[in-house]
Amino acid sequence: MGQRNSSGKPKLDPEEQVAFLRDKGVAFERMGEADAMRYLSRESYLFSAYAYRTLFPKRVGGAHDGEYANLDFRDLVDLERLDRDLRAALLPLALDAEHLAKARVLDEVARRQDEDGYSIVRDYMASLSPAERSRREAEISRLRRDEYSGDLQRHYAAEMPIWVLLELSSFGTVADIYRFCANRWGDRSMLREHYFLRSAKGVRNACAHSSAIINGFGAASHVARPAPDALTVALRDAGFSKRSRASRMRNPRLQQIASLLLLHRRMAEGTALAGEASAGLRTLAGGIRSVLSVTRPDASAEASMEFLAELVDRWF
């Protein structure tokens, strides 16, 4: 076995990694051990691929107690690749949502006679607590030497209009400015969209950092807060039963993804972005069904993946 470190867990070379997986009950029938070692050396790594084991049940009792049941290494590969495709489909939607949120704010500013583009920035900064204001100022100040945003930051350091503030702000700050504007203008639809932007930010971060997403679709995932009313109504109108809505929206990751899909569907309606999103998501739905035709994760994970594919069919 590989060399041990201070934590007591050994590092493993590819051959030892395959032996470790075999001891956990992972079979190598659909993908042989040589191909598995090549995959773990060239395309991925054990810590990433093994994350999807949580979607499969373990045997209880008998000689194979604690081993994974009906889990082939190819299942881990298929799910890891599907997760990569999921991130590739969702990341553009999250980026679109951020862009469209900026566009919505700036369109409102342009249309309103009582907005000059500068006072709204002063009022927003004044609305923050001292600690929050300090964080916002530091966030923008750090961009001074940035290759892509430094010129803007330096040029508008003394006084910044809203279109520059939005361009220099993180996704979280954009969502907060959106909330501020919704309250400033008494716009309830914008206020509802603000909550969905928060979910979009969570999905964007997961996608941008290549975090595993699908491995949280299983029975062991923690329970989310109740879904926003607007999301519940949209799912009902799409034909999902009350039982299906309640069951699937208990999963926090699936709830965030559904929130992003709804937000994009509404904000991008009538634009070229809508068609681009539809094409990517329909390819993803086909990929989900293809994986489920040969892989059988636990019932909760399977139902969540089927729900996501069906959601794409009904909304896009």
Describe this structure in words.
This protein has 15 helices and no strands. The mean pLDDT is 95. Helix content is 65%, strand content 0%. The chain has one domain (76-205, 220-313). It is an all-alpha fold and 316 residues long. This is Abi family protein. Pfam families: Abi_2. InterPro entries: Abi_system_AbiD/AbiF-like (IPR011664).
Radius of gyration, rounded?
A: 23 Å
The gross shape turns out to be globular
Average residue-wise pLDDT: 95
Number of strands: 0
What class would the helix/strand composition place it in? mainly alpha
Helix content: 55-70%
The domain tally reads 1
Main pleated sheet = none
**Oligomer state of the chains in this structure:** single chain
Count of helices? Answer: 15
* Beta-strand percentage range: under 5%
Low-confidence stretches: none
InterPro entries: Abi_system_AbiD/AbiF-like
Pfam families: Abi_2
Protein name: Abi family protein
Short characterization:
The protein is an all-alpha fold and 316 residues long. The chain contains 15 helices and no strands.
Furnish the topology, listing elements before pairings:
Layout: H1 14-23, H2 33-43, H3 46-49, H4 73-111, H5 119-127, H6 130-141, H7 150-155, H8 162-168, H9 171-185, H10 188-208, H11 229-237, H12 242-248, H13 252-267, H14 272-292, H15 299-315
Helix pairs in contact: 1-2, 4-9, 4-10, 4-13, 4-14, 9-10, 10-13, 13-15, 14-15
